[in-house]
Design goal:
Strand order of the largest sheet: 1-2-8-7-6-5-4-3
CATH superfamily of the largest domain: START domain
Structural class: alpha+beta
Number of helices: 8
Distance between the termini: 48 Å
CATH topology of the largest domain: Alpha-D-Glucose-1,6-Bisphosphate, Chain A, domain 4
Order of helices and strands: EEHHEEEEEEHHEEHHEEHH
Mean pLDDT: 83
Strand content: 35-45%
Low-confidence stretches: none
Number of strands: 12
Shape: globular
CATH class of the largest domain: Alpha Beta
Radius of gyration: 20 Å
C-alpha cells in the first residue's frame, strides 16, 4: 500500500496522510491536475468520482460527485486557495447540494497536499484541517481514513498506467449528463501561448476551423474552458452545456471531436510550433 503513515492530532484538529510512489514528482502532480486521472482514484472503491469542473489554479473551483452502487450521490466541491506547481496546493473541501450550493448540514475542511522528491520516487503529504473536534469525529466515523487509504492505492494504479498521461492523446469527449459534455486534450504549448491562441483574433483565424463545411450552431451553448499546465504541455478542458439532450446528441453525432482534433493539430503546427 502506498500509505506509509496516518497521524491524528486532536490538538491541531488535523489528520495527516503520507504516501510514497515510485514515480517523479511531475508525474504525481499531473495525476491531481488532470481531471481524467484524478477521478480514477479520488473516492473509495464503489463510489467513483466524476469531476464536472476542475480549475486547478488559485481562485478556481472543482465540482465533483461520487455515486454509490445503490445510486446514492454525494456532491462535493473544492475552492482552490493556493497553488505552487509541483510543490503544493491548498483547497477548501465542502459538501454541496445538487445545485452545487454549499451544504450547511455537512462539515467542511481545509486540505493541503505537499509534494516532494524521495530516493525511491516521490511523496505526498496530505493534511486535512477541521473546524472542531465534532466535525473531525464525524468525518472519521464516515470512513475518511479508510477512504484515503483506498484513494492512495487507486492512485498507485493510475500512476502505473503509462498510457494515461501520454502527451499524444487526441481529443476525447466524455458525456457527464443529459446536457453536459467534457472535452479534453493535451496541447504541446505553454498555458500562456495556448491562452493567447484562444483569445487573439489573428491567431484564432489560423487554426479554429474544424473540417470543411462546418459552421457554428445558432442555439445557446455555454463553453467553460480551463487551461492547466502539465509538464511541457497544457491540458485543455472544455465543459460544454447544451440546452437539451437532443442538441447534445446531434452535435456529437456530427463527428465534433474529429473536427476539433483537426483544429488542435493546426494550433500546434501553425501557431505554437511555427516553422
Amino acid at each position: 500500500m502506498p500509505v506509509t503513515s496516518i497521524t491524528h492530532n486532536p490538538a491541531t484538529l488535523t489528520i495527516t496522510v503520507v504516501a510514497d510512489f515510485p514515480v517523479p514528482v511531475q508525474r504525481l502532480w499531473n495525476a491531481y491536475v488532470d481531471p481524467r486521472q484524478l477521478e480514477r482514484f479520488w473516492g473509495p472503491p464503489g463510489y467513483p468520482a466524476e469531476f464536472t469542473r476542475h480549475d486547478a489554479a488559485e481562485g478556481g473551483r472543482s465540482d465533483y460527485t461520487m455515486t454509490g452502487p445503490e445510486g446514492d450521490v454525494s456532491h462535493c466541491y473544492w475552492q482552490w486557495l493556493a497553488v505552487e506547481p509541483r510543490t503544493s496546493f491548498e483547497v477548501l473541501e465542502s459538501f454541496a447540494t445538487a445545485d452545487s450550493s454549499p451544504d450547511a448540514q455537512m462539515p467542511s475542511m481545509r486540505m493541503t497536499v505537499a509534494f516532494e522528491t524521495t530516493q525511491a520516487g516521490s511523496r505526498t503529504t496530505t493534511t486535512t484541517h477541521f473546524n472542531n473536534v465534532d466535525e473531525l469525529a464525524t468525518l472519521v466515523d464516515m470512513g475518511m481514513e479508510e477512504g484515503m487509504r483506498h484513494s492512495m492505492a487507486q492512485m498507485g494504479e493510475v500512476l502505473a498506467d503509462l498510457r494515461s498521461f501520454s502527451a499524444d492523446l487526441p481529443v476525447t469527449a466524455q458525456i457527464l449528463s443529459d446536457t453536459k459534455v467534457r472535452i479534453s486534450r493535451l496541447i504541446n504549448g505553454s498555458v500562456d501561448t495556448v491562452w493567447r491562441a484562444h483569445h487573439e483574433k489573428e491567431l484564432l483565424q489560423q487554426w479554429l476551423l474544424g473540417p470543411e463545411g462546418w459552421s457554428m450552431p445558432g442555439e445557446s451553448i455555454i463553453n467553460e474552458t480551463t487551461f492547466t499546465p502539465v509538464a511541457k504541455a497544457t491540458l485543455l478542458t472544455i465543459l460544454i452545456t447544451y440546452p437539451n439532450i437532443e442538441l447534445r446528441d446531434m452535435v456529437l453525432a456530427t463527428g465534433m471531436t474529429d473536427g476539433m482534433e483537426a483544429s488542435y493539430v493546426r494550433l500546434e503546427t501553425k501557431v505554437l510550433l511555427p516553422a
